[in-house]
């Protein structure tokens, strides 16, 4: 949710030339790579949990994880090009991430309460 809000805010911010927002490219690249690795770990873990919730068949689970793991690096360039041409789809995706995060947090409270009392 934090990343979605930050990216939406960044997209809405208009940068003016010479505003002093220059960033060290080495620090930026390292930070970007670490953020990508971190987000991939989170989404991979969430995907595995979703797959476990949908099936008890290990072969189906393993196949889904393997296919998604192969599809991500293969399709990343095409998805990036599409999003660069269609910025509104990027905004829509960020808002969907924000809404899904909000719903998951909203559902977690009552579920945690029920789990503690059962």
Instruction: Give the structural class.
Output: mainly alpha
Helical content band: over 70%
Quaternary state reads: single chain
Largest sheet: none
General shape: globular
Number of helices: 4
Q: DSSP strand (E) fraction? A: under 5%
Radius of gyration: 18 Å
Would you identify the regions where 5 or more consecutive residues have pLDDT less than 50? Answer: none
Structure description:
The protein is mostly helical and 118 residues long. Helix content is 85%, strand content 0%. It is built from 4 helices and no strands. The relative contact order is 0.11.
List the helices and strands and how they pair.
Elements lengths: L1 H11 L12 H30 L3 H28 L1 H31 L1
Helix pairs in contact: 1-4, 2-3
Short description, anyone?
This protein is mostly helical and 118 residues long. The protein has helices spanning 2-12, 25-54, 58-85, 87-117. It contains four helices and no strands.
Features:
118 residues, mainly alpha
């Amino acid at each position: 949710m934090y990343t979605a809000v930050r990216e939406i805010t960044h997209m809405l911010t208009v940068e003016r030339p010479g505003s002093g927002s220059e960033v060290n490219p080495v620090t930026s690249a390292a930070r970007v790579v670490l953020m990508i690795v971190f987000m991939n770990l989170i989404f991979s873990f969430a995907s595995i949990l979703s797959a476990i919730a949908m099936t008890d068949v290990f072969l189906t689970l393993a196949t889904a994880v393997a296919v998604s793991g192969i599809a991500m690096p293969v399709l990343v360039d095409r998805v990036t090009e599409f999003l660069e041409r269609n910025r509104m789809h990027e905004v829509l995706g960020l808002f969907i991430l924000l809404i899904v995060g909000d719903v998951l947090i909203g559902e977690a409270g009552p579920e945690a309460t029920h789990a503690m009392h059962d």
